Known about the structure:
Blueprint lengths: L12 H22 L22 H21 L2 H21 L9 H31 L1
Helix pairs in contact: 1-2, 1-3, 2-3, 2-4, 3-4
Amino acid sequence: MNATLIPLRQTAPLPRYATRLLGAALAATAYVACLPWDLRNRAETAGALNETSPVTTQGVVLLILALLALSAYFGIRDRLAWTLLVVAAPPSTLLFVSFDSHPTQDAQVWPLAWAFCTLVMGVGALGAAGVARSATRRSDA
């Protein structure tokens, strides 16, 4: 079996945790690269609730693909709980910081948006990990 696909629980602690930290760093980097922060968030027009944002559809799609690939990789190599922590937690944390950094909290709906996005990222990570794990086990049989 390829060394990059050996289950992490069968490796020494240093490579195991280094791989997890690298995965978390890749998930955070994908978030920052695909959804850049505009610290100059401002209303489009005076009194509007909508703010300008550098987020694009292409960026969201690329982020989803990157997180799904990481989820599949860690789903094959690690436990599902670790996959959730490695892949979904860093982007969720960065999203929280991004929402919380807005100078004005318009209608205070950002906690709901954050909770929904975190739920979607978590379910997506667990789903991709589970599918990858089951596909790998079927091909081994």
